[in-house]
Design goal:
This protein is mainly α. It has four helices and two strands; from the N terminus they run ααβααβ. It has a two-stranded antiparallel ribbon with strand order 1-2. α1 runs antiparallel to α2 and α3 packs antiparallel against α4. The longest helix has 29 residues. The two termini are 17 Å apart. Keywords: Membrane, Transmembrane, Transmembrane helix. One of its GO terms (cellular component) is plasma membrane. It comes from Cyanobacterium stanieri (strain ATCC 29140 / PCC 7202). InterPro entries: Inner_membrane_protein, UCP028777, YccF.
Length: 122
């Protein structure tokens, strides 16, 4: 089921969305200061391309000082816009029964979009 869900997800926007995150991440990586944020954007892009069959994994060092500082900076600069985008797309998809599994995937990506440092989809 997850293979079929990922294929349908990729065809109907997941590929372009993930590619946008990856291109944005590579652009952010052009500056030395932006490299940690670019890596997280690339990680978010890969997670966005194939979300079916994956779970949100929080690493043991999630709440260390550096991750907390980077998560706050990420939240202010990038995270809230990405999370609102996933929320809106999820709400639109949740209107129909067919869209419910895809809405669930958007809702699953919201915590990672808000606080990506120390989190992954595995």
């Amino acid at each position: 089921m997850s293979l079929l869900g990922n294929i349908i997800w990729l065809i109907f926007g997941g590929f372009l969305s993930g590619l946008g995150y990856i291109i944005g991440g590579l652009t952010i990586c052009l500056t030395i200061i932006g490299i940690p944020f670019g890596i997280q954007a690339i990680k978010l892009g890969v997670a966005t391309m194939t979300p079916f069959g994956r779970r949100d994994y929080v690493s043991p060092d999630y709440s260390n000082f550096i991750n907390t500082v980077f998560n706050v900076i990420w939240l202010i600069l990038f995270g809230w816009e990405i999370a609102v985008s996933h929320l809106i797309h999820g709400l639109i998809l949740a209107i129909t029964i067919i869209g419910l599994p895809f809405a669930k995937q958007h809702f699953k990506l919201i915590p990672i979009a808000l606080f990506p440092f120390g989190r992954e989809l595995k």
